[in-house]
């Protein structure tokens, strides 16, 4: 429970846990919390680490590439941490990833410090290494001149494109109003109950609107939701676990661009803020993803896609060994920092519980 569910060591002293153990095994003496923190969990960590190294060494004999994700994060105590994960496909097309590093990173966040800390100097000189991170200058410089190929997080670039478009159109005031409304009803029980009562009597949008200006703002919001929904769905799809994601980037990008062009074309002559947001977003996506169109890595990953589950599909193509090796090489590359984000969440629970 302590390791799997991130329960605090004190759980072994909780009344409910002790009563449960008394029911399951009446004569078992539960060790103290200090025993778990000083011995049991440390031994468990050592055993799992040894097992993972043995399993990884066996897998590394057949992997065709070694993608890494690198991400930095800051705890609630304003302490910096760095996380490195690796990703690869086995011969059976099983997607695997491991956390190689999750440690305190108090040094300056320069490219050289990041490179030294993340342990890119792996004993894999004959295996292509891909480093996937955000496109901050320090991350880019960490890979400059190194025997690795640097790729940007696609989901991160989507969010940056949205931020660019929002800033260009000037939606800050409207977003501030929305946050204020949500915050008010989130922190006031009476207001929330009154809102729920109003929602039962009238349409949701009129629960806040007392003027034509209010109705107009809600119409704007409705158009913004329509425009941004494809990017929301794309982000969710790109952050899925244990599935190839790099192959999705080009199709998703072109699909979003096609949607925005159709949206703009269908409203020819309009000059509302919805049209302006769509145009600004299309421009920002073009700028943020300019590298995609010339990236051979993204292109090959897209070509290796299938209509169904690509991993299951390629597993059945053993009679084409060259193509299978290409699939093993490119389909393991992640497009998002989802693995690192999951580590952040778990590390945060460990640090603060």
From TrEMBL:
Keywords: Metal-binding, Nucleus, Zinc, Zinc-finger. Residues 305-351 form the HAT C-terminal dimerisation domain. Its main location: nucleus. It holds the Pfam family Dimer_Tnp_hAT. This is HAT C-terminal dimerisation domain-containing protein. InterPro entries: HATC_C_dom, RNaseH-like_sf, ZnF_BED_domain_contain. Signal peptide: none annotated. It is found in: Nucleus.
């Amino acid at each position: 429970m302590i390791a799997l569910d991130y329960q605090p060591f004190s759980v072994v002293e909780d009344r409910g846990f002790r009563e449960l153990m008394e029911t399951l095994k009446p004569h078992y003496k539960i060790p103290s919390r200090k025993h778990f923190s000083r011995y049991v969990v440390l031994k468990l960590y050592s055993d799992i680490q040894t097992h993972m190294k043995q399993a990884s060494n066996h897998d590394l004999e057949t992997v065709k590439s070694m993608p890494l994700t690198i991400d930095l994060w800051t705890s609630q105590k304003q302490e910096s941490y760095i996380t490195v994960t690796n990703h690869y496909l086995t011969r059976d097309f099983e997607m695997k990833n491991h956390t190689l590093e999750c440690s305190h990173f108090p040094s300056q966040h320069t490219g050289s410090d990041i490179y030294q800390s993340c342990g890119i100097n792996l004993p894999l000189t004959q295996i292509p290494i891909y480093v996937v991170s955000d496109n901050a200058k320090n991350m880019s410089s960490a890979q400059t001149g190194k025997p690795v190929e640097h790729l940007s997080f696609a989901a991160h670039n989507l969010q940056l494109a949205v931020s660019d478009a929002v800033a260009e159109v000037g939606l800050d005031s409207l977003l501030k109003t929305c946050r204020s409304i949500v915050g008010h009803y989130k922190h006031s029980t009476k207001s929330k109950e009154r809102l729920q009562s109003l929602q039962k009597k009238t349409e949701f949008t009129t629960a806040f609107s007392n003027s034509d200006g209010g109705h107009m703002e809600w119409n704007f919001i409705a158009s913004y939701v329509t425009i941004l929904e494809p990017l929301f769905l794309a982000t969710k799809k790109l952050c899925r676990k244990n599935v190839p994601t790099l192959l999705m980037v080009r199709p998703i990008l072109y699909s979003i661009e096609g949607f925005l062009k159709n949206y703009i074309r269908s409203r020819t002559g309009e000059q509302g803020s919805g049209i302006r947001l769509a145009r600004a977003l299309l421009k920002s996506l073009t700028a943020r993803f300019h590298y995609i169109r010339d990236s051979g890595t993204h292109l090959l990953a897209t070509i290796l896609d299938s209509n169904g589950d690509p991993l299951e599909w390629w597993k059945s193509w053993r009679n084409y060994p060259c193509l299978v090796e290409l699939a093993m090489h490119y389909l393991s590359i992640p497009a998002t920092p989802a693995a690192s984000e999951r580590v952040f969440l778990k590390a945060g629970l460990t640090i603060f519980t």
